[in-house]
Amino acid sequence: MRILKRRTMGRDRDRGAAILEFAGFLPILLLVAMAGIQLGIIGYAASQAGTAARAAARTESQEDLRGQGRATGLAAMSDWLADGTVIDVGGTDTVTATASVSIPSVVPGIKDFGKAVKEVTMPAD
User: Fold this and answer.
1) pTM, whole model, 2 decimals?
2) What is the mean predicted confidence (pLDDT) over 19-45?
């Protein structure tokens, strides 16, 4: 009895190789995507810090609205960033408002990206 041996072509031996290569490359793709998202969050937090500082300084610089700068600065921000925000307001001739926003992390293993700090000075009325 003769056993027929099937000839294997090169492409038959490579079957499934593409999925293995993709599975090996997937973690790198995920890390790059998360790094891009994290950079966006850092930029957004810096933008929100500037918005809060401007709103607080603008409000505090008006004589009839003195004392409401911190509340106005927090109200001008997104709610999910306002929780960890500190706004300091002070001055007499010129009002300086400093907003410090904690930057949230989406990268596993890294919990602290620091704070985005913006300072705005406006003349008082």
Assistant:
1) 0.79
2) 92
